[in-house]
Write a structure and sequence with these properties.
The protein contains nine helices and eight strands. It is an alpha+beta fold. It is 51% helix and 18% strand. The strands form two sheets. Strands 5-4-3-8-7-6 form a six-stranded antiparallel β-sheet.
């Protein structure tokens, strides 16, 4: 009985490995050389497998919705797979960020947040309280305009200047051209500094410091920020910025190693 169970487990792992190899082959295809995806023969050649075997495996993946087949008969990854990957990535992001936010909060003794872009606004997905009698509020599940937070600045940091201006102008709150350009100037300064500072722009008594979190491709995935009473944070902006950047680097290294086991953190 034990031997039979062991053989079944081994077969399941082998089957999963073969499926992953096909998905990797489709994901790694050179778009310039294969703009319409890969044929069965292409996948078989890449993996060194029999065409008949690859054909059956691709058919199974097609039935599950993991791959799509074009009218030409060539295969590519499906949008369903991308959607699953995004949801999985979001879950991993919040799980990995939680202990790091806790550590950052314990260090700076102010509330910390993890936020993402959602329909042109900043959505808070995770927060850790400082347990001080006076602190910024827990904002999980709520949104604010991008131009009113340090997280918004961080999330837009890699975009072209004109795109940033357009995003701010389309905000639900009416923003003048002068205000949009002032925000852009703050983003530009943040690029040089490495982190953002929103001094009393969301609330006349609050100051926020934020930094972007990049995934293993280098694309901004989220932002981490520290927020609290301006009178407490303002004297320590530079020190808090250093702690924030250390937290972001640790989170990025975790995200990278999760996707690329054994990767050097310095490469992430």
């Amino acid at each position: 009985m034990a031997l039979e169970q062991k053989q079944t487990t081994h077969a399941a792992r082998s089957g999963a490995s073969r499926v992953m190899a096909i998905l990797d082959a489709l994901a790694s295809a050179d778009l310039a050389a294969f703009p319409d995806g890969l044929s069965v023969a292409d996948v078989a050649r890449v993996l060194g497998r029999e065409k008949s075997v690859v054909s059956r495996q691709l058919k199974s993946l097609l039935e599950t919705g993991m791959v799509a087949r074009r009218d030409s008969g060539r295969y590519e990854l499906s949008w369903r797979l991308f959607a699953l990957a995004v949801r999985a990535g979001d879950q991993r992001l919040t799980k990995m960020a939680a202990p790091l936010l806790l550590k950052l909060t314990e260090t700076v003794r102010e509330r910390t947040y993890l936020s993402v872009l959602s329909d042109g606004e900043v959505l808070t997905v995770l927060s850790e309280g400082s347990r001080r009698s006076i602190e910024a509020v827990n904002w999980v599940g709520r949104t604010i305009p991008v131009h009113r937070s340090s997280s918004g600045m961080a999330l837009l940091m890699d975009y072209e200047d004109e795109h940033i201006l357009d995003t701010v102008r389309r905000s639900v709150n009416r923003v003048s051209d002068r205000e949009a350009r002032e925000f852009l100037a703050q983003v530009q300064e943040s690029r040089r500094r490495g982190y953002t500072v929103a001094n009393r722009i969301f609330d006349p008594e609050l100051l926020g410091i934020g930094a972007p979190v990049r995934d293993f491709t280098g694309r901004i995935k989220a932002a981490v920020n520290i927020s609290g009473p301006a009178f407490r944070i303002e004297p320590h902006i530079q020190a808090f910025g250093g702690h924030l950047l250390s937290t972001v680097r640790a989170l990025q290294a975790s995200l990278c190693s999760d996707v690329r086991p054994g990767a050097d953190p310095s490469d992430c």
